[in-house]
TrEMBL record:
Domain Helicase ATP-binding: start-end pairs: 30-201
Catalytic activity, as annotated: Couples ATP hydrolysis with the unwinding of duplex DNA by translocating in the 3'-5' direction
Name of protein: DNA 3'-5' helicase
One BP annotation, GO: DNA repair
Superkingdom assignment: Bacteria
MF terms in GO: 3'-5' DNA helicase activity; ATP binding; DNA binding; four-way junction helicase activity; hydrolase activity
PROSITE patterns named in the record: HELICASE_ATP_BIND_1 (PS51192), HELICASE_CTER (PS51194)
Organism whose genome encodes this protein: Macrococcus carouselicus
UniProt GO cellular component terms: bacterial nucleoid; cytoplasm; replisome
EC identifiers of the protein: 5.6.2.4
Chain ranges of the Helicase C-terminal domain: 227-378
Length: 692
């Protein structure tokens, strides 16, 4: 046993007790890192990857090394790591968005601390990089969730791609440690290509022997809501556990958390930008409540997908399919980290594949588009702001931000004071990028196919995942999943008391149409031209009522049942706001759809139906317009008011079948108000919510 190993064992026993022993592979990884080898540790969640880099840090610091740099993806994980490091007597600091007021004092202490934890985004901050340049004798860099370095695994945080550039700026003798639970052969080879073939890989078994997986057959959202609520209320195991429920969208997180709360289950939605009613970010407070046991269930997007460390989570339920099996392994791995028995239940429905394919499409970086954006930026000597670039392309803000981030992290462009410039020495190889994007897209679609195969698999679920990750596991089965046990752990009981309630809830997910206050050029809309807050019958096109509305819309005719349903819904709004006329938003593609509905609703409610808006040409469908400027222009170009006298001084219900961006409603209402309407109240059957 060499000196490094003896000291590592001594530190372990001093910290965790004389009976403590390293898990298989931990001591070898510590030795490799202290010997300054490039090292990749691939081990299942809960194996103790942080022990490796913190004990290595302690040994290196005792030998005179400077602080370790730890690149970590999640704020929650940073807090967990600081706590773990403290047990080893290490002084660790973090730079993140929640401690801005302390940045200067933390920067001043950089040379005194044992480790500095930062998010990958900080690597794009020149001020931070300058401060990092003042730190002496850095001898170790840790990249947590290292699979994100790879071209095949960086969708979660594109700034991970900058890590390679940072690593290349350090001397070769510095120790580099990557840790992950989810790197298959393809990802490992890609990391080797970027960091060097001398990379030492420590790879362990990935089958979790304490998490029982169950995959339900396809269910409606109503059935899934009822299933979860019943299980968390009556099941002898789940009713006593804390856990995480994963959804694909923010809107679904809100819906599931709300339904559980209505049924006395302590639950809260968690996602990027989650706020309280005062507009304050409450993400840290949510995690604290969950960590301390004050909150029983977190309903989350992938924001809680990597690295969150709470040891006693008893279950992970997926309300919808994850994006792929790698994401599934990460997410269900939040459960049972203390070794106790845990459940992972995968629910899914018909809409999931459509949503995942939209994510895959949005992740594509079309080389022709990248080249065009570089040309637009390059044509301006003074650089361009993001909104100035947006004017040239039919892209939504999120997509443009994603594309600009891609160009930025790959050093094709740089940024100064919110202005983008092309790097003078950049060379964008469109053909090479096209090949990369083609491979990435094919891989993502293949991963979706593998996910669908997993859902329909009739063997050991955990072994299927381990094989997908090219894990070295020799066990043929986990022995504890639903197939290995030959039974479902939780069934959708025929006497489930929540089915009718869930159906009623999903059918009454009514929404509010809030008015836009500014035009797409950011100029304020005159108060006299702003519509009043309006309503949507449903915010969920996949609810039972939403599906019915969408089916009838596709058939070009709303049924008498729908007329009655929506008429009854708007009755109180019509009476409360003294609405006198209904005006339909015209369509040349479905010319009778909305007008017939508006006319029938007017007859039911005993008010006037007025054809006050006319569309002069088809134009493009609004769904094909991807940013505010294009959407406003598209609506404005072909709409004008007729029959002015009939709407003058009247309170108008402005009716459309669907609403999403609100630009059609905004433009139509402003035209009606400009021509003398007293007030305009928009109403749509469905909020399609594609902006989510």
């Amino acid at each position: 046993m060499n000196t490094i190993q003896k000291r590592a064992i001594q530190i372990l026993k001093e910290t965790y007790g004389e009976s403590s022993e390293f898990r298989e592979g931990q001591l070898e990884a510590i030795t490799a890192v202290v010997n300054r080898q490039k090292t990749l540790v691939i081990q299942k969640t809960g194996w103790g990857k942080s022990i490796v880099y913190f004990i290595a840090t302690k040994i290196l610091r005792a030998r005179g090394a400077g602080p370790t740099i730890i690149i970590s993806p999640l704020l929650a994980l940073m807090h967990n790591q600081i706590e773990a490091a403290g047990r080893l007597g290490l002084n660790v600091v973090t730079i993140n968005s929640n401690n801005r007021d302390d940045w200067e004092s933390i920067y001043d202490a950089f040379n005194e601390v044992d480790a500095i934890i930062v998010s990958p985004e900080k690597l794009s901050n020149t001020a931070f990089i300058d401060k990092l340049g003042t730190v002496t004798d850095i001898e170790m860099i840790v990249v947590d969730e290292a699979h994100s370095i790879s071209d095949w695994g960086h969708d979660f945080r594109p700034d991970y791609q900058r890590i390679v550039y940072l690593l290349k700026s350090f001397p070769d003798h510095i120790a580099i440690l990557g840790t992950t639970a989810t790197a298959n052969d393809r990802v490992i080879q890609d990391i080797k290509d970027q960091l060097g073939d001398e990379l030492q890989v420590f790879r362990g078994d990935l089958i979790r022997d304490n998490i029982s997986i169950q995959v339900n057959p396809a269910q409606s959202k109503v059935e899934r809501l009822a299933f979860i609520t019943d299980a968390l209320t009556r099941h002898p195991f789940l009713s006593k556990q804390q856990g995480i429920i994963y959804c694909l969208t923010k809107k679904e997180c809100d819906s599931v958390a709300d339904f559980l709360t209505r049924n006395d289950i302590s639950a809260v939605a968690y996602y990027s930008g989650v706020q309280n009613e005062s507009g304050e970010d409450i993400s840290e407070a949510i995690l604290n409540d969950f960590h301390t046991g004050q909150m029983r269930v977190i309903v989350s997007t992938v924001k809680l997908g990597m690295g969150y460390d709470k040891s006693d989570i008893g279950f992970v339920i997926h309300f919808q399919l994850p994006q792929n099996l790698i994401a599934y392994y990460q997410q269900m791995g939040r459960a049972g980290r203390d070794g106790s028995a845990a459940l992972a239940i995968l629910l899914h429905g018909d809409e999931d594949e459509e949503i995942i394919k939209s994510f895959i499409e949005s992740a594509n970086k079309d080389p022709e588009l990248l080249q065009q954006i570089l040309e637009v930026i390059g044509a301006s000597r003074d650089g361009l702001k993001r909104n100035e670039i947006l004017q040239h392309f039919n892209l939504n803000v999120t997509k443009l931000a994603s594309v600009l981030k891609y160009l930025y992290v790959h050093n094709y462009i740089y940024m100064e004071k919110s202005q983008y410039y092309v790097h003078p020495n950049h060379h964008f190889d469109a053909a090479k990028n096209a090949q990369i994007q083609k491979q990435l897209n094919e891989t993502r679609l293949a991963e979706l196919d593998n996910l669908k195969a997993f859902v329909n698999y009739d063997g050991c679920y955990m072994k299927f995942i381990a094989d997908e990750l090219d894990a070295p596991d020799t066990k043929e089965q986990c022995g504890i999943c639903a197939h290995c046990r030959n039974r479902q752990f939780i069934t959708l009981a025929e006497d489930n008391p929540y089915l009718e309630q869930a159906k009623d809830y999903k059918n009454k997910l009514h929404g509010v149409i809030t008015p836009r206050k500014r035009w797409s050029n950011n100029k304020k809309i005159d108060d006299a031209l702003v519509f009043e807050p309006g309503w949507t019958y449903t915010v969920d096109p996949y609810s039972p009522i939403g599906k019915r509305f969408m089916l009838e819309r596709d058939q070009g005719h709303f049924s008498d049942k729908t007329v009655t349903t929506v008429s009854n819904f708007v009755k109180e709004h019509i009476e409360a706001n003294q609405i006198e006329v209904i005006v339909g938003v015209p369509s040349l593609r479905r010319p009778k759809l909305v007008s017939e509905l508006a006319r029938k609703m007017a007859e039911v409610k005993g008010i006037s139906y007025i054809e006050a808006l006319e569309k002069t040409a088809k134009g493009a469908p609004q769904r094909d317009m991807h940013n505010s400027m294009m959407q406003e222009q598209n609506a404005r170009a072909y709409l004008h008011v007729t029959n002015v006298e009939a709407i003058k001084d009247k309170n108008v219900l402005l009716l459309d079948d669907l609403v999403d961006s609100r630009w059609t409603m905004t433009v139509a209402a402003s035209l009606l108000l400009e021509q003398g309407a007293a007030h305009v109240y928009p109403f749509a059957l469905v909020n399609t919510g594609s902006s989510d």
